[in-house]
Structure formats: C-alpha cells, structure tokens
C-alpha cells in the first residue's frame, strides 16, 4: 500500500479539496497523516478553515475513529536553509545568506533545485521514524502542482542533472527519486467529466508512465446525478405534453388547458431536460475516455452548497467507501 500520495489535476478541478479529503480518509482508525502543500497558496488552510500554515508540521484536524491530520506548507527558502544546515552546518551563516537574498537567488536561477527541496521535504516525512523505529506518519499526501507540470516537478533527478553530477545535491536528488519511483508512491490525478480536464488527465498519465513514475488512480470530482437521458426526453417531447401539463396542474401550477400556465411551462422544462440529456451524454463519453486509461477510478459528488468543513468530511467518507486508494 502506498505511503506517499501525490495529488495533481488541471486547475479548477478541485485537487486541493480532493487532497484534503484523501488525507482525512487515510487518517482513520488512529492513523496519522501529513498533508503537504508545495505551491505557497495556503489552499490547505482555506479548505480546513484555519489560519495560514507556518513552516512547521501542525495538527489541523481529527479524523473519524481517532486519527489525525497534520499539515505542512513547505517554503523553498526555508527548506534550503534546512538543507544547508544538514549538509554544511552553516548555522548563522545560512541566515545571513537569506538576509542578503542569496537563498531566493539560488532557488530562482535553479528551479530544479527548488523542486528537489520541495519534494525532498515530503519524502523525508515519508521515511521518518520515531525512536522505536516506527514511521511517524502512516501516510503523506502532497497537494502537488497541476497536471501540466507534475511530471517535470516529480522527475527531479533529470532536473538537477545539469546542476550537480556528484555531491550532496546529487545524492539528495537520487534519494528523492528512490522514494518517488518506488511502490511507496502513487500519483493520483483529479479531473472533471469535461473534455479539457479529461484530455489533460490522459496526457498526464502518459507522461508519468513514460518517466517511470507510479500512477495511482483517477478521481472524478464534482459528479452530478443523472435525472433524464436522451430517450426519456424524446418521449416527453413527442407525445407526453398532455400528461406533463396535467402533472403540473396537479402540482398547483395552473390549469392543464391549452394556453394555461401549466401548458406554457412545458417548453422551457423540455428545453432544460434536453440540455441535461446532452450533458449526460457528454459526461458518459468522457467517462469512457477515462476508462481507457485502465486505472482505478473514484467519484466524488458535487456539493451544491460548496465544500465547507462538514462537506470535506463527507467527501472523505465517500472515498473510504470506494475502497483503498
């Protein structure tokens, strides 16, 4: 079973919400989960309705059955200071470098180094053990960059190849890749049943597989129930007008006579039904495209009132019901 869950997806698909729900789902029955943010957006704090996260691991939620979710917003500059202290024992000199802007300069001119630091911090949490030799966290969930950048972000070994052939940076990148390409890791992609997110998901899966990175599952977010299909709409439009008018009349929406309120409501209702049926047909076609990826698929329903903290727990329960992820 994977211990590092990387969650990516096209912008607007709700990947941060899904990552948060997954962290809650994994932190059941007393388990401990670390939810990691790497983009500096404080999205996790917003989802959990808490204050901005500092650069430290902090408990932010209690999961069902006594588990706990901790969170960490990784800052590349702070991670680089940790790195310099770990390998070079710079201490106060490292803080002085930050004051003169050298840290920001280093992570800006070498974006590959930034990715090594961000992914390295998450991988360190995966490997970390307590004094009794047990893993500190049962699972780590990373709210990762969008699908279009995820392969390059995770493939840090290639990114730093031009920076360092040997030495601590090279060794750190190698250690990160050993975790990222192992069975301990699974990269999950979040999508909607729309053409562009589905296409980007398919492209992302191909790129991840080509890079040798382990793909986990596809999470279809914000699904909506099917009320009518195209056949039922056609039946209503071609001969059921009288019955519809009578049903509207019985509901108190005017008389069923020709030209009455109930009769005038039929055409707008049928138009809405046709639009619904068209959407259902398009969503089924996109679902078929996703099935061709031959990956486990999970579905989370659209919450009409938006995702508040109660809704987040509801999504976590839905994920648990659909089996291990």
How would you characterize this protein structure?
This protein is of the alpha/beta class. Helices cover 51% and strands 15% of the residues. The chain is built from 14 helices and 8 strands. It has helices spanning 15-26, 43-47, 76-88, 92-99, 102-109, 111-127, 147-154, 156-159, 168-180, 195-210, 230-237, 241-250, 261-291, 309-321; strands at 4-9, 32-37, 58-62, 68-73, 139-143, 185-191, 215-223, 297-301. An 8-stranded mixed beta sheet has the order 3-4-2-5-1-6-7-8, with helices on both faces. A hairpin with a 5-residue loop joins strand 3 and strand 4 (68-73). Helix 3 packs across helix 6 (111-127) and helix 5 packs across helix 6. The model has no long low-confidence stretch (mean pLDDT 83).
DSSP helical segment count: 14
Mean pLDDT: 83
Give me the strand/helix succession: EHEHEEHHHHEHHHEHEHHHEH
Work out the number of β strands.
8
Which structural class matches the secondary elements? alpha/beta
Q: Which percent bin holds the helix content?
A: 40-55%
| Outline | elongated
The low-confidence parts are none
Could you tell me the radius of gyration in angstroms?
Answer: 25 Å
Distance between the termini: 8 Å
Main sheet? 8 strands, mixed
Q: Trace the largest sheet across and list its strands.
A: 3-4-2-5-1-6-7-8
């Amino acid at each position: 079973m994977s211990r590092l869950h990387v969650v990516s997806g096209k912008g607007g698909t709700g990947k941060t919400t899904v990552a948060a729900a997954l962290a809650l789902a994994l932190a059941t029955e007393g388990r401990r989960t670390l939810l990691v943010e790497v983009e500096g957006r404080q999205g996790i704090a917003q989802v959990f309705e808490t204050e901005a996260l500092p650069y430290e691991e902090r408990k932010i939620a209690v999961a069902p059955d006594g588990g706990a979710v901790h969170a960490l917003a990784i800052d590349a500059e702070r991670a680089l200071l940790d790195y310099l202290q770990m390998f070079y024992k710079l201490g106060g000199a490292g803080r002085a470098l930050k004051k003169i802007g050298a840290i920001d300069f280093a992570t800006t001119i070498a974006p590959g180094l930034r990715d090594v630091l961000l992914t390295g911090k998450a991988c360190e949490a995966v490997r970390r053990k307590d004094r009794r030799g047990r893993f500190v966290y049962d699972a780590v969930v990373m709210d990762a960059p969008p699908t279009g950048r995820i392969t390059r972000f995770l493939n840090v070994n290639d990114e730093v190849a031009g920076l360092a052939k040997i030495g601590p940076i090279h060794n750190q990148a190698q250690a990160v890749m050993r975790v990222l390409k192992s069975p301990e890791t699974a990269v999950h992609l979040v999508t909607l049943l729309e053409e562009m997110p589905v296409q980007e998901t398919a492209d992302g899966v191909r790129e991840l597989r080509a890079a040798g990175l382990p793909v986990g599952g596809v999470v279809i977010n914000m699904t909506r129930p099917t009320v009518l299909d195209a056949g039922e709409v056609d039946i209503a439009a071609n001969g059921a007008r009288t019955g519809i008018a009578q049903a509207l009349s019985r509901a108190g929406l005017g008389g069923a006579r020709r030209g009455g309120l109930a009769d005038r409501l039929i055409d707008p209702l049928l138009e809405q039904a046709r639009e619904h049926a068209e959407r259902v047909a398009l969503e089924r076609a996109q679902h078929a495209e996703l099935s061709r990826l031959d990956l486990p698929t999970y579905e989370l329903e659209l919450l009409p009132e938006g995702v508040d903290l109660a809704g987040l727990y509801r999504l976590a329960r839905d994920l648990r019901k659909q089996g291990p992820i």
